[in-house]
């Protein structure tokens, strides 16, 4: 299987190289396109996101503006006589405290419907006393609260001054960081009798803006004029100093808030943003379908283009095997048509050339066969005429007439008919006349029998290949004995015609059996002529062999293809 696949790949190298070159080119083009599209889309997306992000940042101004107004309103409304009376009394008076608390509750009721009220933790602080307006428990001592107020006064106590603290002053906010607003409470004589503490946790403060921003994509921080982080959508950054980030892959935007000189800064992480907006899978899917479509179309076109070339290669392989009729159809591109036309012209010229060679070779073989034939005939004619001459000397006219008749029949069949083949039946007749002439020379003590298989009588065999073998047996097999038998068998054997000339003569040593190729003079005319004749007619499909045993006899065996005999 592996060898078959490798052979297929080897046979289609041109197509594979063209396809590989096309695929690499397409991949490079697609890769460059994807990179350009990704860069442009990513850049555009980041720009649009930054623009929308800036709009959101600008909108948070109103949120913090409302927060500042709400804080200032509460502070203004808390500046009431009942609170002043309560805070100024050195001793605790239940009635005074109750009056102050009721008035403060009325103020609080005005602001309960405001969106920002829920995040405000209030406390009214005097020199020795404190009021908790919304019911929370103040766990800090008055002295501790006064120290917080003094921290706020380090700047400008005439205004609300927010600052960061690690914990609040109520039980609920004590473990949370946040910012304090310190607002002085003054009477009509501008005398300060207490302070309003407003605490907002950093977590609540961040909720004012963090819901508008994606925590996984950007970092949003609220910083004061000292660059200290007051709130962030990442709680662990609160209390740390702010550091600007202008590194590649980040976009930093900020907005100046309307009060307190605060800034809201947003740092967008491009990598995380693009991770949320990943267009590459979609691009790859689209490009994948396009690539497959282009591949199929390109394969079809390249296959159509290279098909005539592979057909030409196949035809050339057949031509190499001698099939010169393998012409190409004139089709394909103009270059392929021109190549096919030249190839067809070349085949025509080759066919003419080889036809001429074959014709010359056939004529040469014909002359060679005639030459071999004539090498046999003079020898036979000489011996026959010698025998007839002896009969004339003896005065046996009847035998002379019979001999001349047989001789005439032999000459008619060999000289008048120039065909290379004749039927087995005709060969049998000729052998009968031939044996009659040999008996004139050698006498009738040597008996010759011809046995032909009935199915072979119409099969065609070469002329003059059996007669020399019979004459050889007459001349050499019985040189030391006066009687003997020669049998000629013509029979089918394995789709071949087998001709055997068998004698019971003196034979010879098997180790010294002559081979026709050595051209030994086992016969006076030599077996070499017969072997050459068979090779010219049949090539390697015919054979001639000799088998002999000393004192037993000799067998000469010829096998020729039956398919060539018609």
Automatic annotation (TrEMBL):
SUPFAM superfamilies this protein is in?
A: ATPase domain of HSP90 chaperone/DNA topoisomerase II/histidine kinase (SSF55874), HAMP domain-like (SSF158472)
Principal localisation: membrane
**Molecular function per GO:** ATP binding; phosphorelay sensor kinase activity
Q: Where is the HAMP domain?
A: 303-355
Q: Which GO terms describe its cellular component?
A: plasma membrane
PROSITE patterns from the UniProt entry: HAMP (PS50885)
Q: What is this protein called?
A: HAMP domain-containing protein
Query: Which species does the entry assign this protein to?
Result: Enterococcus cecorum
